[in-house]
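so my prof wants the structure for this chain in the tokens format not the other one, which i didnt know existed until like an hour ago. anyway here's the sequence
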Amino acid sequence: MTRILLWYWGRRGGGAQFALSLARALAPDGVALSVSRQNTLIDAFRAISVPRQEVTTFNGIPSFAAGFARLPALGAALRGFARDQGVDVVLSAMGHPWTPFLAPGLARRGLAFVPVIHDAKPHPGDPALLFDWRLDRELAAARAAVVLSDGVAAAIAARRPGLKLIRLPLGAHLPLGTAPTRRMADFVFFGRIRRYKGLDLLRDAWPLVRAAHPTATLHVAGEGDLDACAPGLAALPGVSLDRRWIDDAEMATEVASAGALVVPYREASQSGVVPIALALGVPVVATAVGGLAAQVADGTTGLVVAPEAAALAQAMGRMLDPALRGRLAAGARAEGARLSDWGALAGQLRAGIEEALVR
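here's what i got, hopefully its the right format
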């Protein structure tokens, strides 16, 4: 069986949860780990009984800049660990600022490098400095790549024709022991607050929802400048806020506390929050952009609408019907059970990697 080194040097958020879920699922059939000591989930990684390399990365801009002097030694240590563990492939769970500097060295030493590509282009309004250079460096070193949506797959195929692509659905990375919670709001928006996530659409839709349903409530939870992305949303009636970085242990509670998740994005590769909501039996109202339409089955696990305020408001109003919401919640739970089966996802991933290595 192919021996995998799972490489994740990030620190927090969805990437950390994704890498941890993969590590747990890959462990029974053999995996080695290379992780950052600064990872907020490091204790959970340490609890997995597999060979593990820990490296010191950075906690801010000064240590990030100083870290470049350590890259040759870090690269040598990563390759040495891979060699000592007899791995066949280095699987990058999510790109790190240092990945494009180290990935070519893996390929030169005969190690198959397989990155998970979460985004094929920068999100509008997000930092885009060196994005294309970083991605091209990773793809040039790759034997294959894992993609999580059809849109990203098409973009990578155009960028690197002939590269073997392994299509994998984005799983639900729920913290262990997640329990249901009582409902606190009719709708929740959860995640980093960024311009491309369409909070201005949600702001414009919300008065229309309240006009038809005066007691409807909306909870907005996440870190970011809400006033810059959607001026006036915070002051609307029925809206509550939790403006901070919400750690992994609280994430599921925030999502499960609402009748529905609202994902009003203007652009998306895919959403990491959607599988979590489905696994919790929370239906989704999403805009039909990027990979969201594939993640949310319209009429089965949620409602998918055009990225327009009036259409979004209409769908949110429909979601307040208890009978419809109950039917969609049942569909969400069924799909969420599939997306929570990380053992099956790991098997699919291994099969794709083994096929790529044969080719």
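also thought this was worth mentioning. The CA atoms of residues 193 and 288 lie 19 Å apart.
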